[in-house]
Amino acid sequence: MLSDTQQREFADLTLAFAKRVSCDMAHDSNGVLYDYEVRLFFNSMRYALTTAMNDFARERNTRLPVNKLPPEVLLLMGSFLPYGALDAAAQTCRRWCTILRSDASLWADIVLDFDGPGSWRSATRNALERCQSKPRSLVIRLSYSWYETSAVSALISESSIMQHLDHLGIWLCKDIAAKKDWHPLVTSPAPALRTLLVGTISNDTPPPLLPSNLFAGNCPKLYSIWLSNVLFTNPFTPMPQILDFAFLDFKDAPITEVSAVLDACPDLVSLTVDASESCSDYIPPLFVPRPIPFLRLGFWVPYGILHELVQASTSNCELRIRKSGIIQLPLTGFRRIERVHVLFDDAGAGTASLIVQGDDNCVKSVEEMSFRKLVDLFSDGSALRLCNMTHLSLPDSMWAILLSTTFLDGDVVCLQSLTVGLSNKLLELPGPFPRLFTSSEHSTTRAYNLRVPIVRLSAWGSSDSVDLSIEAVAAWLPTSTTRLLLSGVNLTGSKSAMPDSIIVEKEFPWCSGGNERYLQWRPAWYAEFPRSEALVV
Known about the structure:
InterPro entries: F-box-like_dom_sf (IPR036047), F-box_dom (IPR001810), LRR_dom_sf (IPR032675)
Strand content: 15-25%
Organism: Exidia glandulosa HHB12029
Largest sheet: 18 strands, mixed
Number of strands: 22
Protein name: F-box domain-containing protein
Pfam family, one: F-box-like
């Protein structure tokens, strides 16, 4: 099949040829040139050649191995493609286009990036037609102020798609956020909507306001609202069905809005407040803190409404704090600490995350904690709260340092398992932290006073295995250890160096010593537009 460019080139070629030979053709006795006969002749010739070339291209394409795949396989392949790549695949050839567009469910997750002046309205209409106006989710990014913004909003809000939509995501540039052209997107009834995300492309933009008549009050299934540098109009309409609310990427903590959400959503299960500044000690009148099962704070200080929420959440809850002014916070408020996990945030950043779980089903974590402060936390008097913990997971760097402190001098008496995390990336770094199995000073250091029956060596943060010598591992293991579990770690050397009393086992798949739950539990602090998945208009 000829492309548009090829057809134009062919038309120009035939026209130039006609001009060259017209002096010898199509003249009558009076010397009058019959232009229509020349055009008819060459149009017929072009049609014949184009048909022949299309038949040849179609026959050639049918012989390609990829085009011998059955339609079911092509549809399965298309189900794994993001929206923008799916659109590109549909333009590969006529067969692919026909097959991929035959299944409306493939096109039900619409992601559009309006990145400049263009035909936004037609792109939106085409996207709706492909899914037969029944999309599951719609995520749009309005990164350019264009006169068709209101037309796109009207096209979406006035159609029937809001009746079927499950997720709606809207990203606004500064100029559009200041206007109200996008309001129809969030004021039309959405009876099937479950999750809503509205954000600005940059947090330098003054936070725009959501309209007070959100979805015209008709969103009975909506349970999650994430606002990224976007506020709502007070008073907030009571929404008892909301279980998850998040304020993300704010400069100043929206204290008044947090209080309004707590009043309007009595069954709230998860609350996230992320702001670069959270120093306000303002507590709204008649505010009564209540426990929040999942509480995530970008910054915490021991005063104000956020402090009251932390104090109220003492059991059956998970508290996650990105930055804390008090490093002892994760170790407080427990009857007894059972599990402690230390995870590197970045191998070269010098920060780590501390996750602590108590026997009252309460989990507290602090991220972006200075590695040196974390070591001090384990070494000073706060470590007395850790003497009854049963499970400990930490990187080899921190364990190498703790071996040289008084942390293990007979105080930890209930430890049942110890997980030491290793990675090739960490092993290759020259510093600033020591490595357990790469420094002769630490490789021969044994925790004689530590009683722990199970030790796990686990590869963290990498799919590549870590190779260690049997001699180095055997020299380091506590004398009380009876089982050595290897998760993504290979032992090399003489097997006779390992004591017979220690049973060595492989674990599959590779795990992180029981803290997979916490690795999955930690969501992203920042909501971002999935630009790599979008169809750019």
